[in-house]
Amino acid sequence: MNRYNLLICIVLSFFGLNTTKVQAQNGDQILDGIGETELIARYLFDGSAKDWSRNNLHGKIEESKVKFVNDEQFGRVLYLLPDNQAFVSIPADALAGEESLSITGWIFMRSTEKDQCFFDFGKDDKSHFFAAPMGTKTDQGFHTEISNGLNKYKTDSPALEAGKWNHLAVVINIPSKLISTYVNGVLVSEAKNVELDLNQLFNKTAGSENKLYIGKALGSGNVFLNAKLHDFRIYRVSLSDKQIGRIYKNSLTADQEEETAEDQAAGLPLFSKNTPQLYNQFLKSVADIKVETEVGNLPRIPAYVKGIYRDGIQGPEVRVIWPSPKENSQVLKTGQYTVTGIVPGTDLKPKAVVTIKEAKKAITPERKLEAFHLDQVSLNNNLDGNHTKLIENRDKFLTALSQTDPDSFLYMFRNAFGQEQPKGAEPLGVWDTQETKLRGHVTGHYLTAIAQAYASTGYDKVLQANFTDKMQYMVNTLYQLSQLSGNPKEAGGKFVSDPAAVPFGPDKTAYESELSNEGMRTDYWNWGKGFISAYPPDQFIMLENGATYGGQKTQIWAPYYTLHKILAGLMDVYEVSGNEKALETAKGMGDWVYARLKKLPTETLISMWNRYIAGEFGGMNEAMARLYRITKNPHYLEAAQLFDNIKVFYGDAQHSHGLAKNVDTFRGLHANQHIPQIMGALEMYRDSNTPDYYRVADNFWHKTVNDYMYSIGGVAGARNPANAECFISQPATIYENGFSSGGQNETCATYNMLKLTGDLFLYEQRGELMDYYERGLYNHILASVAKDSPANTYHVPLRPGSVKQFGNPHMMGFTCCNGTAIESNTKFQNSIYFKSADNGALYVNLYVPSTLKWTEKNITIEQTTDFPNEDFTRLTIKGSGNFDINVRVPHWAAKGFFVKINGKEEKVKATPGSYLTLSRKWKDGDTIELRMPFEFHLEPVMDQQNIASLFYGPVLLAAQETEPRKDWRKVTLDAKDISKSIQGDPKKLEFTIDGVLYKPFYDTYGRHSVYMDVTLK
ω into residue 721 within 30 of 0, thus cis? Predict the structure, then answer.
C-alpha cells in the first residue's frame, strides 16, 4: 500500500535522546529550517530503529546481536558489527512514487574495507541507489552510484577518514538532472545530465517489492558495514547546499541556525517586481475607491478594482494588494483615513478613503436556508448515459468502504480498554498504529462516511444493508466500551466516576502518553464516566497542564481533534438512523469534556487552543453546539463556548480586535488547525445568536479566499513559514511566500473550507460562496482521487511539472486527508440544492445531473446535463406548486446566461456571480433550460501576475508534462482574445497550446503544470 508517499498533514516529531544536540527548530513543525512535510523518515538510532517522523516508517533491525552503544558526541547510537551481519531494513514502500530524494546521516567508520554500504535502496542489484563511504573494488573513495538497468551515474570523492564522525548527504535532484554528495556540510562531488526517473529504481504500484537497506548491499556475498550510525534522514525533496550545511552545523551546536528569506525563495524563478505582467502591462489607471466601516472594525476593502486599459484591451478588474494591519488602532474613533495599495508590477498606487462611523446595533443575518437530507438527492448519469466524475469517485469509495472490516476501526479502542480482540482483527496503519498518539481519529471519519453511505444508497438495498450493519456494530461496541469508563471493574471495586478527578495511571508518578502494550494504562474504571477514545484520558489532562506536541511520552498529539471526529461521527449515525446508543455515547463524552473544561481559567484555555497541533481541537465547538441543539442540554452549549479560540477570534481576552473586527489574526498559522474552529464559530452563532461569531466566520472566509487561495481552491502551502501546512506569513503573497517545495493545498483543508462555505450560504445567498464551492469541488476534491482506486491525495503539489501522490487505496492506513476523503466522496449531493426554511424557494447551486425529491412540497426536480463537458443544463419539474427557483449565475459566465422556460426564451438580467430568481406557479412537466457559454480565462497569482492558471469555464486546465521541470512552462497568448491561441475539443475538455496538451486537473494523473509563466501579446 502506497500510503507513505503522502505529504504529511499534521506534523512530524523530531525528538530523541540527545535533544540538546539535535532539536527541532521553532517547535515540532520545522527541523533545521525544513518543513515537516518534506521529511519522509528520520532514524535517530538512539536505542531502536524507530522512525521519529509521523510516517511510522519504523525500521527493522535484521540481526538480534546488534548493539546500541554510548557515544561521547551523540549519546546513544547504533553500532553495526560486520561479524554479526547486522543491518537495518525500512518499509519497502517508503520511497515509492517520490520524485526527488535527499538522504543525510552521521556515520563513524571503524574500517577502511571496500564495498561497505552506508545504504542501498532499490528493486534489486540492477536497479538501485547506494553509497559506499570507503569505495568499492572498482571505484575509489566515497562513491555513490545509481543504476536504472540502462545507465549508471556515479559520484566520487576522497574516502572518509575512519575513526571519526562524518556527516554524509546525497541529493538526487530530478528536475535539475543532478546527483550531489556532501561531506560535513560541504559539496564534494556532483554528477550532471542525469536522465533518471525514480520509478526506475522503486516499484510504485507494488512497493512491497522494493528493498531498502541501511548497512548492507542488495546483492549477495556482501561486505557488512562496520560503523556507528546516528540521525539517518530521508527527505522527499532535493535539499539545497545551505540546507545541507545547516543540518550539519545544527547537529553540533545548541545554537540553531535559522533559515533566511533568501533560502526560502530558493527553487522558484525570480521576476522583476517593477515589470508589468499579463493585463497589467496595458493598464493606464486604477480607480480610487471609498469604503465605510464602524468604530473598532477594520474596513473590508475590495481586492479587485475597476481599471482602464489601453490599445482596446478589455482587461479584468485589477488586483490591488492593500496593507493588512495586525490590529485595529486606525479605526478606534470616528473620522477618515486613507489606505494606499499597490498593483503588482506597476507604479500605480490606488487609494481607498475609509470613513469610520459610530458603531450601530449589530445586525447579522438569520439562517434562511436548509440543506436537503442526503436521501432526498441522488446523482444521475450524464446526458450521454455515462457516469460523471462524481459518480466514478463516489463508487470507488462506496465499494471500498463496503469491504472494510469494522474491527480494524475498533482495534485501538478495544486495545485502550484492555479488551480482547475478535479473532482475525487487524489494526490499521499510518496514524492508527499502536504507539501513534492520534490513533482513533479515522474511526470518527469512518462513522460519518458509513452514515452518509447508508443515507445515499437507497438505490441498492444490499449495499445499504451493508452500511446499516456496520453502523450498528460500530456503535454497539463503542457504547459498550464507554459504559466501562468510570465504573468498577468488579462489584465493590474502587473506581473514579468524576472526569475532573482522574488519577495517574497505576504505578505512574505523572500523566503520560505512553501507548505501548507494555506501558499503556488500561484502568478504565478510573477514567471518569462517559469517557470514550482510542487511548486513555492522559493526553487531554496533559494538554491542560501545558504539554506540547511531540513523540515523547511527556508530549501529545491533538487529543480534541480526534475526539471531534468521534463525536461528529456518532451524531451523524444518530441523525441518519436514530440509533440512541450513538447519541448516549456522544452525550457521555460531552459530559466528560464539560466537567474538565469548566474548571479551567480563561488564560489556560487561551494557552491550550493556541498551542501548535497539541491544542488542535478540530471542530469541537461545532460538535458541542450540535450536541446542544439535539439534546437542549445547556451544558453542551457552555462547553462549546469554552472552545472559543479567543486569540484568533478576538485578539485577546479583552476582545480588543481579532477576526470579529476584521483583523487577520491567522497569517502564518496551521491552516487546517483553524478552519474547523471557524466552522464551529458559525455553528455557535446559530445556537447562541452572538453576532461576533458570524463576523468571525464571514471575515475569515473573505480573507482566506481573497488573500490565501490557490487556483484549485486550496488555501495553505507556505514556504514562509517553512511549513506547507500553514497559511503564508503575509496575506496576498503566495508567490513570495507560498509554493512550498513540500507541497501545498492540503486536501482536508479544502474539505473544511467547502463545509464552511456551504454553511455560510445558508445565511447569505452570495454568488461568490457557491462559485468558490464549485471551484474547490471540481478542481481539488474531484482531482484528489486516483484513477483506478479510492487512493487519494494529502497535499496537492502545484510547482512546475508536479505529480500528485495518491495513498491508502485499500483503506488500511489513514492520515487526516485520507479520513476526510471518505467523507467528501460519500456526500457529493449535499450542496447541489438548498431550500428556504419556509419551503417557499429552491436554490440550484451546482449543475450536476441529479434528482431532487422535495418531499415537503411533493415536488421532484430532475436535472439533466453533461456539465462541465457541456455549458447547458435542463431542470424538469414533476408536480406543481408556487415557489421561487433561484439559479446560480457563475462568476465565469461573462459571455452571457440564457434561460428558456418550456422552450421559450426568457428576457432576464443575469449578473455573473449572483443568483437569478425564476418565480411562477410551476406545473407538472415544466422545463427550465439554462445555457452559460464557457470561455477561457486566466487566474494569476496575486503578487506575481504572469504566473497564472488557465480555466475553461469552471474547469482548471493543467498542462500535461512529459518530464520534470525546474521552471514554469512559458506560454504566449493573444492579449485581446486568449482563445485564439488555444485549439482543441470543448466536448472532451482537451486543448492544445503550442502542441502541449491541456486537460482538466481532475482528469490529470501524471506529471502536470497547473501554473504557467504567461505572456500576453
Answer: yes
- The answer to whether the CB of 34 falls within 8 A of the CB of 242 is no
pLDDT digits (tens, 9 = 90+) for 359-386: 988 789 999 999 999 999 999 999 999 9
pTM of the full structure? 0.94
Cβ burial of 654 (10 Å; 0-12, 13-18, 19+) is: exposed
Q: How many helices (H) and strands (E) does the chain have?
A: 19, 49
72 exposed, middle or buried (CB, 10 Å; 0-12, 13-18, 19+)? exposed
List the Cα angle 175/181/186 in 5-degree steps.
115
Strands 872-878 and 927-931: antiparallel
How many angstroms separate the Cα of 834 from the Cα of each of 371, 913, 981? 5, 17, 40
Nearest to 10 by CA among 946, 815, 992: 815
d(CA 867, CA 381): 11
Dist. CA 12–CA 40, nearest whole Å: 10
Which are the contacts of 21, defined by CB distance < 8 A and separation ≥ 6? 73, 74, 75, 251, 252, 254
| C-alpha dist (Å) from residue 418 to 503, 554, 712 | 18, 22, 45
pLDDT in tens, 199-252: 899 987 666 789 999 999 998 677 889 999 999 999 999 999 999 999 999 999
End-to-end CA distance of the chain: 48
The C-alpha atoms of residue 799 and residue 793 are separated, in whole angstroms, by 16
Chain centroid to CA 584:
32
**744 with 714: CB under 8 angstroms?**
yes
DSSP string spanning 695-724?
HHHHHHHHHHHHHS--TTS-----SSSS-T
Q: Look at strands 813-814 and 429-430 and give their pairing.
A: parallel
Q: Where are the alpha helices (DSSP H) in 39-78?
A: none
Helix boundaries (H) for 29-134: none
Q: Are 799 and 1012 in contact (CB under 8 A)?
A: no
User: 254: how many CB neighbours lie within 10 A of its CB?
Assistant: 9
> β-strands 841-844, 881-889: how paired?
parallel
Provide the 10 A C-beta neighbour count for residue 761.
23
**Residues 411, 419: Cα–Cα separation, whole Å:** 9
CB 158 within 8 A of CB 142: yes
CA atoms within 13 A on the CB side of 264: 24
Residue pair 673/616 in contact by the 8 Å Cβ criterion: yes
597 is written with which cell numbers?
A: 473544561
